[in-house]
Amino acid sequence: MHPVRSNHSPHPLNRRGARRLAILTAVVLAALTLSACVETGGQPMDTVKQVDLDRFMGDWYVIANIPTFVEKGAYNAVESYQLNPDGSIATTFTFNKDAFDGPQKVYHPTGFVLDTDSNARWGMQFIWPIKADYRIVYLDEDYQLTVIARAKRDYVWVMARSPEFSDAKLQEMRDFIASIGYDADKLQRVPQQSDRASSAADE
Questions:
Q1: In terms of DSSP H, where are the helices of 41-131?
Q2: Beta bridge pairs of residue 125
Q3: Residue 42 and residue 39: Cα distance in Å, rounded?
């Protein structure tokens, strides 16, 4: 007699589907765990005491940053905010890739105010359900200059209402970033169109 073979072995396609689901679940759980660690672990990072959201809206030129992988090689980077009726913040991030006339990249994350007492701590959502840490840690009285940081001290953004920005002011911002625990040597100036115009005028 021949041995009876079981008919209950999972089909290869079912095994692959289950494996993919397990990997996706692990990635999402890891991301959520990382988000929780950002909020509770390490040294505290203070935000500014109060942000008037209406005044904060509009265009901000990215003057310098410790860039994410998406932003490497960015020229003419601009972050634009618009307050939605539900209190969320429609965000448009644009830049030219690798040159002033390089291909334009556009991203549309959504900001969510997590600390409504100060309006200075947001979650920036590119992909549901993950909200990346976003903290307004510097903001001048005229709402012309701001620094956005993260509790992990990995990425940071210096942004201004004008693309023109002096080296002296950038050094001041570099010193500030170092004072809140960043490696300021990693800060990179983002080329803006005004930089090219100034260079041409000097020639």
A1: 53-56
A2: 110
A3: 9
Amino acid 51 reads: V
Residue 123 CA to chain centroid, in angstroms?
10
Instruction: Name the DSSP class of 86.
Output: T
Tallying the residues shown for the chain, one arrives at 203
45: left (phi over 0), alpha (psi -120 to 50) or beta: beta
> Among 188, 79, 160, 162, which Cα is nearest to 124's?
79
Q: Where are the domains of the chain?
A: 13-42, 53-197
Tens of each residue's pLDDT in the chain, 203 residues: 444 444 444 454 455 554 554 444 444 333 433 443 344 346 789 999 999 999 999 999 999 999 999 999 999 999 999 999 999 999 999 999 999 999 999 999 999 999 999 999 999 998 888 899 999 999 999 999 999 999 999 999 999 999 999 999 999 999 999 999 999 999 999 999 865 444 333 44
Q: Looking at the domain 53-197, which fold is it?
A: Lipocalin (2.40.128)
